[in-house]
């Protein structure tokens, strides 16, 4: 088998910032392989992963299946098949670190990233990895990749991130809160649990309650809790939760100080379901020929 001619050249990682590098589309398998070469550390180093320092040797990198899928615009199943293919071709070695972390070792990394002088780039290596010399038809590679999908999965399944602080950060970046909810949150006295409160807010709107009602309830509740200990103030998700404690603050007694007296709304806007139940009860009494106390209407004449 002949050695490849022409030597080799090095590529700087900054090429990933070039306009030709894929952005917004799925990577090809060649681009995915080049990206893995770029990710590999060029010297032994320690990297921080979720608050832990991990020693990563030359030619290795720590990856997350979810992150590769996002970057390459691939499904996780395709990621697994591709990595299994590379491992079966002796191009990489896969080592599971934790449930979500995987250590990838580039086989023959020194061959791809040799010396730093121009003479060394043209020098013929003493041993040439077979994978560089061997070319296979595209159809055969596709068949190999499909075959690897049948290999039993030995790597632990990744677990998606569910940390509340990350969810809150993503929500802020996406600006998902509506203007009406922001008005509610501005009035509400306890600023904890904004994400959960917004979910309850949307549920109450679907049930037929109005945004003005919940904003008014927040104002009245803030007035009531003005001098109270903050730790006894309900969190937003509780205030708007399934028990609907906000309904208790849509009308309050008139014995408050004038400057602190909250605005109230008409009964037509309060608990529409309760009014409907009352109307149904009156119709039932009339149908039965009884008044509200249960006396026979005929006896009153």
What does this entry look like structurally?
The chain is mainly alpha-helical. Helix content is 41%, strand content 9%. The protein has 13 helices and 5 strands. The chain has helices at residues 29-39, 65-72, 76-88, 109-112, 118-122, 130-133, 138-148, 164-174, 179-187, 194-206, 211-224, 236-239, 272-288; strands at residues 45-49, 52-56, 60-64, 92-96, 101-106. The strands form 2 sheets. It has a 3-stranded antiparallel beta sheet with strand order 3-5-4. The chain has a two-stranded antiparallel ribbon with strand order 1-2. The longest helix is centred in the C-terminal third of the chain and has 17 residues, at 272-288. The chain starts with 28 loop residues before the first helix and ends in a 13-residue tail after the last helix.
Primary descriptors:
3-stranded antiparallel beta sheet, two-stranded antiparallel ribbon, 9% strand, 41% helix, elongated, Arc Repressor Mutant, subunit A, 301 residues, 2 domains, mainly alpha
Could you estimate the helical fraction of the residues in percent? 40-55%
The named CATH superfamily of the largest domain: Winged helix-like DNA-binding domain superfamily/Winged helix DNA-binding domain
SS strand fraction: 5-15%
Whole-Å distance between the termini?
117 Å
CATH fold field value of the largest domain: Arc Repressor Mutant, subunit A
Q: Unreliable runs, pLDDT <50, ≥5 residues?
A: 116-135, 150-161, 252-261
The largest pleated sheet is described as: 3 strands, antiparallel
In CATH, what is the class of the largest domain? Mainly Alpha
| Count of helical regions | 13
Total count of strands: 5
Task: Give the total of domains.
Answer: 2
- The structure class reads mainly alpha
Indicate the CATH architecture of the largest domain: Orthogonal Bundle
Shape: elongated
Order of strands across the main sheet: 3-5-4
Mean pLDDT score, rounded?
75
> Secondary-structure element sequence?
HEEEHHEEHHHHHHHHHH
- Gyration radius over CA: 33 Å
């Amino acid at each position: 088998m002949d050695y490849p001619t022409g030597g080799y050249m090095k590529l700087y990682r900054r090429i990933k910032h070039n306009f030709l590098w894929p952005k917004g589309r799925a990577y090809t398998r060649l681009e995915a392989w080049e990206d893995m070469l770029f990710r590999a550390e060029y010297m032994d180093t320690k990297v921080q992963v979720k608050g832990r320092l991990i020693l990563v040797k030359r030619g290795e990198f720590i990856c997350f299946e979810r992150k590769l899928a996002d970057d390459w615009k691939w499904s996780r199943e395709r990621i697994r098949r591709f990595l299994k293919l590379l491992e079966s071709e002796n191009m990489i070695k896969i080592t599971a670190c934790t449930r979500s972390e995987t250590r990838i070792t580039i086989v023959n990394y020194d061959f791809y990233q040799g010396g730093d002088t121009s003479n060394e780039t043209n020098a013929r290596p003493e041993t040439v990895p077979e994978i560089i010399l061997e070319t296979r038809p595209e159809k055969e590679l596709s068949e190999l990749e499909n075959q690897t999908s049948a290999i039993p999965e030995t790597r632990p399944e990744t677990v998606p991130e569910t940390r509340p602080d990350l969810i809150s950060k993503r929500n802020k970046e996406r600006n998902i809160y509506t203007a009406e909810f922001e008005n509610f949150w501005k009035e509400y006295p306890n600023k904890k649990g904004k994400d959960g409160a917004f979910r309850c807010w949307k549920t109450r709107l679907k049930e037929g309650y109005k945004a003005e009602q919940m904003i008014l309830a927040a104002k009245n509740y803030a007035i009531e809790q003005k001098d109270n200990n903050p730790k006894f103030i309900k969190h937003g998700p509780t205030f708007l939760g399934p028990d609907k404690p906000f309904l208790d603050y849509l009308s309050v007694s008139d014995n408050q100080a004038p400057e602190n007296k909250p605005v109230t709304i008409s009964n037509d806007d309060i608990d529409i379901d309760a009014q409907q139940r009352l109307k149904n009860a009156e119709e039932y009494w009339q149908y039965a020929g009884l008044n509200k106390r249960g006396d026979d209407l005929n006896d009153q004449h």
